[in-house]
Amino acid sequence: MAARVCAVRDAASTPDRSASPRIQRFAWAVLAYNILVILWGAYVRATGSGAGCGSHWPTCNGEIIPRQPSLETLVEFSHRITSGLALLGVLGLLFLAYRRFPKGHRARSAAVASTILIFTEAGIGAGLVLFELVADNESMARALFMGTHLGNTFLLLAAITLTCHWFGGAPAFRWRGDPLAKWAGAAVGAIMLVGISGAVAALGDTLYPAESLLHGLQQDLSPTSHVLIKLRVWHPVLAIVGGLVVLHLVAEIRRAKRPQPVRRWATAVNLLVIVQLAAGALNMVLLVPVWMQLVHLALADALWISLVLLLAWAMAIREAADDGDVTGAAALRASYDSA
Ligand code: HEM
Q1: What's the gap between Cα 142 and its chain centre?
Q2: Most CB contacts within 10 A, which of 83, 151, 194, 222?
Q3: What are the extents of the domains in the chain?
Q4: Distance (Å, whole) CA 281 – CA 250
Q5: How far does residue 8's CA lie from ligand 1's centre (Å)?
């Protein structure tokens, strides 16, 4: 038993000979492709094309390949095909993780998590169609599904990001016991909550478009408005609080004077928080045109991924130092600086 524990720990902490830039490049490509599929999913929602295949799944209007499709059908059907390819990409990561990395290795765990999460993602998407929570459905069940869909998407992106990170040979990190853990948890939780509230706001905006900024605000404040409109005001409020929490986390990390990859991701996270807050405001002023919704979602994904990488690097360095492995920590820093 003790030998097994040691073997697993060794697999988690030794430098990786199985890692290579080639498989890491493939993993980054899978991540980039998944982001495109997510954006296309938002396009399906924003254009009200979710019922393009009727309430049929996995067939489209009862056909495997739709003949004489309408524009709506094409949009929905292409989302299904592209998500199917995303699933194949993630299965490719799983295959590589098991082929290249030893038993108990963190790269394998991240690839397994990515696989489970892409299946739950497909399940939620199928649920939306089968329960007819699409097009102009304005039920709370739909809002719940949309929030869960966004939460699952963020977890999926985190799992694929960590697969990329570890396919390239990056070290393990440890959350428990890390002095950063409290603020890191608050930042991850806050951005997750902001994202979920954003998905609900997006649904409110799609179903009840405002004719002007003033009309939108009147809708938000009217006691007779639909609950989805009342909920959408919370998104900017949560975003400002969440943004401040993340900026504080970055300040904490910077104070500790971390070496290069940490500094790079800290700058990226800081910039993305500020740009995203501005993009959110612009989105509202422009009355949420589809292109701006896609930009806003792309920035949300970029911020989330950068936060995951920032924490993965920052906590890895602390882990080596906290274990009393001063030379290990120094070697880690040197290798990061030259990276
Ligand atoms: C850290 C900051 C923010 C993050 C991470 C964030 C994230 C998100 C996400 C994930 C969505 C759902 C997109 C979709 O499913 O299509 C969304 C929607 C939305 N957000 Fe934000 N947001 C932030 C800040 C803001 C701010 C400050 C405002 C307004 C002042 C805002 C206004 C909106 C609006 C109006 C929508 C609905 C339209 C759309 O889908 O784009 N956001 N946000």
Answers
A1: 20
A2: 194
A3: 18-170, 172-339
A4: 23
A5: 41
